Amino acid sequence: MSQKVEKLIDKKGLRLDGRKPDELRPIKIEVGVLANADGSAYIQQGKNKILAAVYGPRELHPKHLALPDRTVLRCRYHMAPFSVQERKSPAPSRREIELSKVIREALEPSLFLEYYPRTAIDVFIEVLQADGGTRCASITAASLALADAGIPMRDLVVACAAGKVDDTIVLDLMDTEDKKGNADVPVALMPNLNAITLLQMDGNLSLEEFEKAVNLAIDGCKKIYAMQKEALRAKYVNIKEVEE
Ligand code: ADP
Q1: Protein residue with its CA nearest to atom 25 in ligand 1
Q2: What ligand 1 atom has the least distance to the C-alpha of 186?
């Protein structure tokens, strides 16, 4: 049975949403959006809408999970039932459990875990609307929520994916490109330390293409990092204006 193959890159070299291969989706970031969490952030990246909330460092329950020499970072990545076209079961899926783990591992190197023994830092990520690349946008928002909670950090963590669609290396894949494309490479970066904290690959790339995709993702991370800093600054400018 023959299937119609949809072109992901048109004759002008533009993508389904009109972007150039090396272009990010429009991004909006806000810090300190939730009154009841210690720290919070909201990100819109294309059609993705994601909230991150942080509590802690705080007493850890059950107590036997506490560590004598460091805090325990706990992450929960969750997609709301209405975040995708078919209702998603609210129960944690295998994918959400895996993403919670990779997000935690991407954030951990940025924190001084040894500063807060016998405590926990909890990061809750709620994907309100998903359109590809949610693990990366979640890391970008969660790192800001940690900073907003006043937790000392070595660096912010910022994440972005690159990949291959229709034989072209592209930045920041949306859902259709992720599903119908050839490969997806999510990267998380601590920009000042120049250290990568997450590197995954789904699909097939030659070594040359892989290097090109990683470098493109790093360039994307650096652009988003500028927006992260701006969002943090904006919160404190607002507070100052309210006080004056
Ligand atoms: P990421 O969001 O980090 O790219 P995946 O590659 O696993 O992670 O998922 C790609 C996209 O697939 C998601 O962003 C989302 O738009 C979509 N998706 C994930 N889970 C579901 C689901 N249960 N139902 C419908 N779409 C989903």
Answers
A1: 84
A2: 3
Q: Domains of the chain by range and CATH?
A: 27-243 (3.30.230.70)
d(CA 179, CA 110): 31
Q: How far is the CA of 210 from the centre of ligand 1 (A)?
A: 22
Ligand 1 pocket (Cβ < 6 Å) reads 84, 86, 88, 95, 130-135, 175, 178
CA atoms within 13 A on the CB side of 213: 29
Ligand 1 atom with minimal separation from the 202 CA: 6
**How confident is the model over 100-140, as pLDDT tens digits?**
999 999 999 999 999 999 999 999 999 999 999 999 999 99
Reduced to 3 states, what is the DSSP secondary structure of residue 196? strand
Are the C-beta atoms of 100 and 135 separated by less than 8 Å?
no
12 Cα–ligand 1 center, Å:
28
> Which tens digits make up the pLDDT trace of 173-217?
999 999 999 999 999 999 999 999 999 999 999 999 999 999 999
